Each structure stands twice: as C-alpha cells, then as structure tokens.
Amino acid sequence: MKRLYIIFLFAILMAAAIFVWGYSYKESLREAYVPVEHINEHISIPSEEGVFLRSEYALEYEQMPIDIAHERNLNKYYKNRAFYGGPPTIPHEVSERSMGNKDCLKCHEHGGYVQKFNAYSPVTPHPEKINCRQCHVPQKTEQLFVASTWDKGVHPKIGNQALENSPPIIPHPIQLRENCMACHAGPSAPKEIRTTHPQRINCRQCHVINDKEQKDIGVFTRKSN
C-alpha cells in the first residue's frame, strides 16, 4: 500500500512538472506569437500592448498644466535606482507586512499629488505585477550603509535621434516598461523626457528600440580568398 502511495505521488509530481514546463514554454513564445483569431478586432504585437494601456488618459495628459514647482528631473529619477535599468527603490516608509497590490497601487496605479510627500506619485508601467516588494525595496542608506565601488552604470543621454529632427530612439529595453506614458506623460514624468504629444498614443509607430552601443569599425574591406 505504501509503495502504491509513493508511485501515485510521483505520478502527480511528474504531471505537475510537465504542466508547469508546458505553460512556461508557451509563455516564452508569446512575444513572437500573434494569434489571428478575430480579424475584425484590433490586434497588436504582444511586446507593444503596453503602449495602449493608458491610451484612454492621453487627452487628459495633453490638457494637464505643468506644475513647475513639483517637477521631477532625470537626476532624481536615476538617483532613486541602485543601477541603470534597475527598479526604483522605495523612498518613503512602508509597512513591512505590505507586499504590494492595493497598498502600492492606490497611489502608483494612476498617480496624483501626495501632500504628505509634497510630490506627484510616479505611475507604475506594470500595475498587473502586484507583488511589488519582489523587486522594489525600501531605501536604508541612512542606517546600515557601507561605501563600496559599485558601478551604477551610465544612463543614456538626451538627444539620441538617429537623424537630425527625427524622433528619439528608445535607448532602453522595454521589458516591464512597455507602457510608455507611465514614465513619459503626466505631472510625475521627468521634465527632460516628458512627451509633448501624448495624444498620439502609438509611441512605437515612430520611436524604435535601439539599446545597442554603436562603435566605428572603420572602412570595411572584403578579404579575397
């Protein structure tokens, strides 16, 4: 009887492992797979879906007055990250029992002015990720801080157009940052990268990704055999 129980348990674990592997494999192909099932409905590339998540607020963003007294700049934007491309740290007190979800989203899902901190709450580009504390940690540099030689990396410079007067390229990966207007529109957006035309919605139509560092390779010469 005990042997049958062990065999049964092993079968369940094997079936669960196969299911999890199959699900993970299917999800890994999602970026390259675009199902064409409802031909009359809007279809977007999965990696570009986030661009449209806040499109309903586009006209509101355009009509919002600029609050110069409470603007963020890129220095503050990057200072709040341990390294370039890293998730921002939590600069205010937070309950240790809070893992995220509504505790964070009630301020960071739609933003808005927070009188307690005298600042506008940044909007998260991925509100569907509810376990916020998995990536975002509170700042504790005033307590157990030890100096180190940690290299924070070099953040991209402003004015990275491919051609003169052409749209700026996207100088960073878009994983978890597909929602452009979360960082580039509204009063919490850093003033240097705030878009002047949020009403156009489809950012990826003009702005293309290029996070590769380009180097001059000199004059190309083909070697003859």
What does this structure look like?
The protein is mostly helical. The protein has helices at residues 2-28, 58-63, 74-79, 102-108, 181-184, and strands at residues 112-114, 119-121. The protein has a two-stranded antiparallel ribbon with strand order 1-2. The longest helix is centred in the first third of the chain and has 27 residues, at 2-28. The N and C termini lie far apart (73 Å).
Quick recap:
22% of the residues lie in helices and 3% in strands.
Neighbour order of strands in the largest sheet: 1-2
In total, the number of strands is: 2
Shape: globular
Number of domains: 1
What's the number of helices? 5
Derived from helix and strand composition plus strand pairing, the structural class reads: mainly alpha
Low-confidence segments:
none
**Helical content, roughly?**
10-25%
Biggest pleated-sheet summary: 2 strands, antiparallel
Q: Strand share of the residues?
A: under 5%
Head-to-tail CA distance between termini: 73 Å
Helices and strands, in N-to-C order? Answer: HHHHEEH
Q: Residue-averaged pLDDT, rounded?
A: 81
Radius of gyration: 23 Å
Name the features.
single chain, 225 residues, mainly alpha, two-stranded antiparallel ribbon, 5 helices
Helices and strands, with pairings:
Layout: H1 2-28, H2 58-63, H3 74-79, H4 102-108, E1 112-114, E2 119-121, H5 181-184
Antiparallel strand pairs: 1-2
